[in-house]
Amino acid sequence: MNPMFEESTRLDGKIWVIRVVEDVLRAGPVAAVDSFHAFGGSSLQAMRVCVRVEKETGVKVAPEFLLDSDSIGAFADTVVALVAAG
Amino acid sequence: MNDPSLIHGAVARQAAATPDAIAVVTRHERVSYAELDAAADACAAELQYLGAGPGDLLPVLLPRSAQLVAVLLGVLKSGAGYAALDHRWPPERIRSVLETLKPPLFITRETVPGDLVPSWAPPAEGPRWTARRCPRPAPPELTGDAPAAVFFTSGTSGVPKAVVSPHRATTRLAPDATAWTGPGRTMVQAAPVSWDAFSLETWGPLITGGRCAMADGDFLLPAELRRLISARGADAVFLTTSLFNLLVDEDLDCFRGLRTVLTGGERMSLPHVRRCLTAHPRLALTNCYGPVESCVFVSTQPVGAAECATPGGVPLGTAVSATGVHILSGDRPAPPGTVGEICVSGQGLALEYLGDPRLTAEKFPTVRVGGADTRVYRTGDRGLLDQNGVLHFRGRGDRQVKIAGHRVEPQEIETVCRRIPGVRECAVAALPDENGGGARLALFYTVEPVESIEPAGAPGRRDLTPAALRRALTEVLPHYLVPHFLSRQPAFPLTPNGKVDQAALSALLTTPPVPANRSL
């Protein structure tokens, strides 16, 4: 695969995950550097994010990943890496 | 002869009747009643050999597994009671629990904070182990009043309350539990092991001959529920009200295959109930009410179209077996049909708040109801009994709130927060569920003037940002007590007398702070 193409797919994936978080928080706009907790994100909202991620990608992500992430962008990177790893 | 209302006795009777039936199923294990009971005997032998017995309350910190169930049963067989701890609690919380329990032994494979208590770890091979050191000493003589489990719940004083629940409080549930468990039925176990809902999900099936299907992980996502249904045969589940709403919103089809859904902890949301029942008309959906002080349940209400149309919301239902519901106004029964404090009597009542006789006397008074002196638990919930004896909820009489099924006393968070260096004043409020995230907690705080907390030039808490305070709170409070929103205020509104102006503060508390501090 063209490495440039792969890079852009990853970026699209990351943006998609951030948009899912934004949609669940209903507090947008959300930036990659933002903390989930800065928006008052609850464990139930983290679960909603993970349900939607799994529905769309088939990849299981534990809500702890989002709750323990330093930033929403870091969580999105984790999701993208899991999807890439299949 | 031991009392028939002992939990381990009830399980042993099922093991004698159907030894080969599967009692506990997890992703990796299928453990029969005979195997579970034998492992519990082996565990009891070890514990008795180590000196544990009646009067002891043993903390247990083990992963959710068949072995955990065997160990808890073993603790009960030794004559002691258990406190199942949540692995997500910070060390500070564990330390405070150990100080309250003063146990001779801590059952865990983790490192015990500060070496406060000697620990014992069950063998790593899982639930199928047998006694190694000794034949089991004679089982202790116990009654159904013996302490079985300790549950920790939020306390206004800043320290969690340790609710001591006797064997009979759990075994009294058997007649009601046969509506959703028993031979041929499989119940999901997904609640935190420290909750009394764990008793419902584990002892409910095991004392009635049913099967307990343990979930993986701490969050029951729809995909996991589907797996429990399809791969482990689950047909009944307990969900906190907020989790029920989430599953209805995100994946309504995940209930397919279930016969029973029990929900409780908060007021039911009518739109969610209607959506669920429309999609799954044959599902037995039940609203459950019960503070932990009356183990698991006080009352239950099957939910259908009629209950959705009840003014004031879905009723809390009628009392479960061996349980009484009373509406009091002060210390006297409220006039029939009027709103008062919901008080509970019967076999489900806890014995005490461990180490707090004053609070125990206050919350578990003996009052005159129905012509008899009766020990009751004052729930602090307000409600009424209609002419059919059905209980209806009408709010709280104090500041207690429910967050994702957890009971939360805002004062506990405030007390702990004020101890954090740099915090001057703080106030916690619950914000209603407006975005599908459940009710959430907001904490507003002011900081000490810099010069009062550190010598000039010293690094440190010059800037106690919301993120820094959040980290500090995470180290001392369990996750569900850490507020979702933190907002530093330049000052709290004051009255002309210089006191915090509660009315003005309330106005502040009703609006969630905007996430201003973007970067951590």
Automatic annotation (TrEMBL), chain A:
GO molecular function, one term: phosphopantetheine binding
Cross-referenced PROSITE patterns: CARRIER, PHOSPHOPANTETHEINE
Pfam families: PP-binding
Keyword terms of this UniProt record: Phosphopantetheine, Phosphoprotein
Domain Carrier: 8-83
Biological process annotations from GO: antibiotic biosynthetic process
InterPro entries documented for this protein: ACP-like_sf (IPR036736), PKS_PP-bd (IPR020806), PP-bd_ACP (IPR009081), Ppantetheine_attach_site (IPR006162)
Keyword Phosphoprotein: yes
Record-given protein name: Acyl carrier protein
From TrEMBL, chain B:
Domain called AMP-dependent synthetase/ligase: residue spans: 12-354
UniProt record, GO biological process: amino acid activation for nonribosomal peptide biosynthetic process; enterobactin biosynthetic process
One Pfam assignment: AMP-binding_C
Gene Ontology MF annotations: 2,3-dihydroxybenzoate-serine ligase activity; phosphopantetheine binding
InterPro entries named among the record's database cross-references: AMP-bd_C, AMP-bd_C_sf, AMP-binding_CS, AMP-dep_synth/lig_dom, ANL_N_sf
Signal sequence segment: none
AMP-binding enzyme C-terminal domain residues: 412-499
GO cellular component, one term: cytosol
Domain of life per record: Bacteria
Gene3D superfamilies with a match to the protein in the record: 3.30.300.30, N-terminal domain of ligase-like
Coiled-coil ranges from the UniProt annotation: none
PANTHER family reported in the protein's UniProt record: FATTY ACID SYNTHASE (PTHR45527:SF1), NONRIBOSOMAL PEPTIDE SYNTHETASE (PTHR45527)
Protein name, entry field: Chemotaxis protein CheR
